[in-house]
Records
---
Amino acid sequence: MKRSVFVLLPVLVLTPAAIAQRLPGGAVPDHYSLTFTIQFATNSFEGDETIDLRITKPASSVTLNALEIDFHQVTITSGGRTQTAKISLDNKREMATFTVDQALPEGPAGIHITYTGHLNDKLRGLYLSSYNNRKYAVSQMQATDARVAFPCFDEPAYKATYDITAIVDRGDIAISNNEVISDKPGPGEMHTIRFATSPKMSSYLVALTVGDWKCLHDSVGGIKLGICMVPGKEDLGHFAMEASKAILHYYDAYYGIKYPLSKLDQIAVPDKSGAMENWGAIIYGEDSLLIDDKTASLVAKKDVANNIAHEVAHQWFGDLVTMEWWDDLWLNEGFATWMSPHPLEEWQPDWLVKQDVVYGNQRALARDAVQNTRPIHQQVETRNEIGSVFDNIAYGKTGAVLTMLETYLGREAFRAGVNAYLKEHAYGSATATDFWKALARTSHKPVDQIMPTFVLQPGEPFLRATTQCHEGSSQIRVTQKRYFDTPELFEKSDSQKWQVPICIKTLGKANGGASCHLLTEREQSLNLQECPRYLLLDHGGAGYYRFSYEGARVHSLEPEAVQVLSAEDRIALLGNEWALMLAGVSNIGDYLALGAAFKATPGYLLLNDFFKHLEVVSRNFVTPSDRDAFQSWINQTFGPQLQELGYQGRSTDTAMRKAQRAVLFWGLGVLGREPDVIAEASNLVQSYMKDPDSVDGTLLRAAITIAARNGDDQLYSQYKAQLQKKLTPEAFDLFLYALSDFRSAKLAQQTMDWALTPEVRSQDIYLLDAVAQNADNGEMAWNFIQQHFEEINRKTGGGVGGSGVFLYAEYYFCSAKQRTEVEQFFQQHPDLVTDRERKVTIERIETCSALSERQQPMLTNWLQSKGKHGSGVATNTLAPGGINSFPFAAPW
Ligand SMILES: [Zn+2]
């Protein structure tokens, strides 16, 4: 599964007090025959289901999962006898028990069930979607919602084969996991579509979509590919098709097992957030799959390609081999996250996706630095708990840890281990231990010692190095402890230990040599056959750790040192510098100077990351009296770079050059409030409205935001009018969410009122968060969100977004007062989020509030000194060697 781009946090499926507990066992399903008769007139479907199962313990009842199912009749056949079962429902546990008079002997049995299900508006089970006044039926079973579509043994380890039949209106088609094997008229005005038997799979992977879908068709390596969508959007599917061909081709070569089905359909549906990896029939929200290749921004192209690469990776990781229980969800999501850049790197080398990987690692490290983070492996039982582990730990942290492991083992050794694991558990389930045992066996390296330290304990290592040079060789002493993003916790931290693979880069005689080592002790020495002038503890930015150096510290860099650093090194170093500032090791001025020193880094992600952090600085550290100095520092430092690129795109520009321009444009327009950039943004938006093809899509993203932040009532009306036009999903999202950027309180109020009307789809409820993130209207938005809690929950059906809206508080609150308000709100609504999520949110607000108090005066001082001494960009100064025998730079 993949959450939509806008969603950084998990979106819980919210049913307060609902408990999903484990089935009692005693019966094992082998095969399901499912017939769904779709009745759009009544928003319902008739279900006819037969489950072939094995009774493993003689009993007079069978218990499976069912929720919101209206049962008609249940019969159980076993030992040559068919009995009608008494049905008892346990809605709290989401289970149904079928009891018969004569006990069922051990051995094969069959359950036949007829029932009515509901095409709900909660985006779960088999749900209702709509577009242009017509209805669609769409499935979303993960994590625990197959039971809403059909009674089943709804736990991932209960794998079975599925024969699916859909009876649908004459003009409609149906898409499911496998190919259509027959399509016959009747009954009545309907037609009956039968699909080939699925591979053995978990219930959460069952797929069905019904409607007047239009599909593009192609093939790769003998696999039939379909990209499907609502009528009229066919042109937006070509990019996804090209990406899918490249990605599937790559995976077929990478994995030791070929893609196991004969077809792969990918369907874009109007009502959905993110994407779901159903085997052979992946379902996406429209903005996650459909794109106009000609006008789309680089960011949107990368997102769509990455979504496809993620979901298709799941066809092996997750679908072919599945975690035994949700506590090892990371085996699915971490793998898909780690894997997805690989095919993109080969398909689009100009995209520099290695930088995205390091950028993703930095984000994961940042999220994992709180006291209330969780281990990758997390015990979960209830529906809410299961929903809560689809978070940045399962995706981002695991992806980052696997990247570190792959770098340490080498690409081929890692691949051999992955394939051994897949072969061993194909069509079955596996645990974390199975995975690292397979890798240890094939690589002959202690993966089974390394991985538990990252998977079973929370948090991230902090490495501190000291060095000594003696007769041409050097010794690096490294100590480790846990990193926290507050000075108080960081100082006290001491008791954890990891087995950390680290790769070191040196600049000395060898000029940029690299070597990898394994740290197994809390204090350990590494020996180098040289005395380098510089040392980098995280070569390539692939390490899942923070680091610092004892002894001399410099934050100004020699040009030769900067040059020997790759873009990936620099992104990691800059992220690390922010972390050092949070922990009280350095201060905001050091961070700003380092970012400025790296401003000419190839690609756009370093500046993008830097500006995002500067937005936090701008919002929380910059006092009104410092505002002018802060803005002029930004404009002096980055203005010339934008001047050089030019405000307007040229036809000869590479995608990367366009992206650099867009990021600088955003930084100068939003953070620097540079009048020329603001005027140009406004011109660009007006040009787009006259002729959408006239503006570079990458630059447009920035321009829409900048114009809105400086826009009036008239521009607001223009944006809203755009939403009525036939837009690409990207343009729609841009104009929709830009409504939150207008500064006027009156317009913010209008946006929020409108967000609760049926005109705004429930997946776009995040518009409320977006308003709350607007510094001018945050307080008002928070009050609105609290006051309209019931309406928000009703609109989202307790489904998508309902709880996410409240969890986002951590992103925009930074004061003691707000902390109290959020805590009170959580107390009033105890079932809204899990206990851990509540604690993380509160912790983050507290951390931000303390950080702001600490860094504000330092920023003032730094800005004043910049006013006297120039832009703060690195000079050729090197700190004295201190206790070390050679100059030592940190962060590099
Ligand atoms: Zn996923």
---
Amino acid sequence: MASFDVRFLGCKVSHLDAQEIRARLLADGHAEGGGDIAVVNTCCVTNEAVSKSRQAVARAARTHRRVYVTGCGASLPGAFANTAENVVVVSRRSEETPAAVAADVGALGCTRDDARLERVRAFVKIQDGCSFSCNFCVIPLVRGATRSRRAHAVLAEVRRRVEQGHREVVLTGVNLGCFRDRDAGYDLARLVREAGATPGLARLRLSSIEINHVNDALVAALRETPAAARHLHVPLQSGDDRVLRDMGRRYTVATYLNKLEPLEDFNLTADVIVGFPTEDERAFANTLRTVEAARLTKVHVFPYSPRPGTRTAQDDRVSAQEKKERSARLRVQSRAACLSHWRTKVGRDDVVLVDRPGRGYGDDYSPWLVDAPLGELVRVRGAAASEEGILAA
Ligand code: SF4
């Protein structure tokens, strides 16, 4: 038996990939916690993410006998060259990685079939890869073209997670709206309806959806599925048409705003890249305006950094100082938008799923501060809004 630790850097998909490796090692009879094996599921979405991943690998190489580098960073050419001798870089498709790591570690017979990885929330991957080609993005290069899981496998996993006691399922992927099971006749809207009807499931969420994939069928599915949260995370990246065109995004600001119009009662969140090479002060001001016009609350701000192998790999014109200042301005606006959204909950009822001691999320994924047992759905009334979330009366 080997003892192992698994950690991840980056997004929900990286988290899920790391969980799958962890589940596979547990299923093979290895024990968690200890100094034999470390798996570091890396991220390469920005320079900073690569450098944090490298630091994590270097640390693990000092404390473990063997280290496996997996995830997006492992497929980025050169990102993990010249690492320590006990480091193995596993540059495989995500669906092959758990078996590749497990085969190298060596199986010890199956002792635990199904690892419960989080108590309340389960992430279920429905799709991987991306066939869009945004000019700044390294993801299609490291994760490959879009491919979907079969709908029956996804629905079976959702049922299994609920039977294990998970109350919330988050359907996860790199470009979720590309999900298709043509043979069985499923698109994302049908999958939402059927996954959301799983007996015992309290909440269903989508991890993220491109604006091009927000359509009437999906909006209707979200509205007509009682378990579906009134929340969508819709990457914006820029709120300026010229920058969007230079980024190779496939929409305009007007399209973004129009498509979100039917979701006026949803909590909308987004990613924005700040300091793209052609973003000047005027373009950034347009982004601030668009974030407001779209009623976005939480904005995840990513300072632009050129990624190897992309169309903008050689272009990084906006100074680090300017990126820092614009990021800070956008974060201030986002914090104010969150607070103002949370204030609308004061004096109103909501149903909160408690996912951590003292905390939980309401129907539209707004954070609440509540005192109730983990995994419970509790009806609460907003008493006040703070920087941390909404205080329950
Ligand atoms: S949609 Fe664009 S930004 Fe998102 S993963 Fe695909 S290429 Fe990257």
---
Amino acid sequence: MKRCFNRLSLEELAALYTAIRDILQRAIDASGTTVRDYRTGTGGSGTFQLELQVYDRAGEPCRRCGRALATTHAIDGRQTTLCAWCQR
Ligand SMILES: [Zn+2]
């Protein structure tokens, strides 16, 4: 469902802002998203593409290995969904 930004309530705008900020922070924390041959300044691959595959998918199967995704608050106090197998 597509909606215009100016039709959103203040609460919805605040939630959207928080979600965008959280995703950007996670991307920065994960050293960027590796698409094709992008590398970080030190030549490593980013890991955010793994987070994109699990984001908000707690309890669903990992798209990479099929194991159930886990949710934890232990990492940084925010809800984090991850595959304990692929994202060690
Ligand atoms: Zn996995």
---
Amino acid sequence: MRSLLKTVAISLFTAAILLPLTIQTPPRGSVEAAAQRRTARARGNPEILKIVSEISARNIEATIRKLVSFGTRNTLSEQNNPNRGIGAARDWLYAEFQKAAAQSGGRMTVEKQMYEQAKAARVPEPTLVTNVVATLKGTQPESASRVYVVSGHYDSMCSSPTDAKCDAPGANDDASGTAAVLEMARVMAKYKFDATIVFMAVAGEEQSLLGATHFAEEAKKNNMDIEAMFTNDIVGNTLGGNGVRDRRSVRVFSEGVPSNETQQEATSRRSVGGENDSQSRQLARFIKEVSERYVPAMKVWMIYRRDRYGRGGDHIPFLERGYAAVRFTETNENYQHQHQNVRIEKGIQYGDLPQFVDFDYIANVARVNASALAVLASAPARPKNVTMPGGLANDTELKWEANKESDLAGYEIVWRDTTAATWTNSRAIGNVTTYTMKGMSKDNYFFGVRAIDKDGNRSPATYPRPAARNQPSPRPS
Ligand SMILES: [Zn+2]
């Protein structure tokens, strides 16, 4: 083991020394090609690197300017005017997603998912709410029903959520997220994935998450197996109201205790721990690990909260229905450019205008999303029914259900200190469904299991629950 580590260390060292030299004097073809292959492998799956490189800030800019040109996209605004209002935005988005679908060889389909929203707090009269939903079907039979959803909301608002007439450019909130999702659809439609990816632009967010709630509710009714949901909402501003310019980080909000936790699960969690290990938190860890590798320019800043302080977003209806979900938002927000009537007051420009949006940054956020989605949809499903017996033991035994994918290579155990934010250790254990960590007590570490395919794509980790037969009850010791 030691000599192997040494060899690795030496070759890394050699590579570090040789790298500047190769820039000055390019080596002969085969040597260069081999070096490039090594670098590519170290960075990851070449197809995913290609996806990342194809995402275009110029396309994102064009989408945002187009969405802003509709004047307002308030959910209560006009639905039949081709030039102004949410209906114009809806139809334009539908056509754009269809253009993306045309590149998919028939694997992507686009629909307008509509329903009539009854009168509600921010809905003065019954209103048609429409989500534009593009579904890129997975190609592996065992995985096609496994779904990953990425969304942005295309509706906007000015100072008042029920003002349907005011200009509400919504360049950042949330043309930025919508443009990121459309760009991902354009690029990823050309690639094949084992599992299914849904690219979605929803309406009614500002009316209290209406479109996302409708989609999540329908999904639940139809037993849709949504393994993860990302909402991109306010992902375009890089100069915060705090005066800080940060173009290199994005916040990923994830909840610790599941929104849909039952009383019984809460009791179990209090007994064995796990308030930091919900499936959404595992998803955030997964995004950080994967995306920082594929998009080294960006730091994924995990925030251990469901959303910003006391706030909400389109991931919440998914969380409430038991789906893992996270929210992407820029690091430093500027409230002069969110939910504001466009105006100049005491020399300050208010309003959510394109001039305050950083298109290159949004492209990087889209790359972070796309790389994580691509790995999720290429990797096996996360292991199911992972359990750990509750008895007294110095070793830790883990069990799980076998995955069904034909390209499954096996599993890894991951673990970390109980105070660590991310998984710090992993061990490949082959294609088995039980494993014992010798000499490592479950009292002292958190463990997880993840599945790996033959190309090395890893699923997010699953945190074990106590095995049913020995549900631990607190006992005196
Ligand atoms: Zn928003």
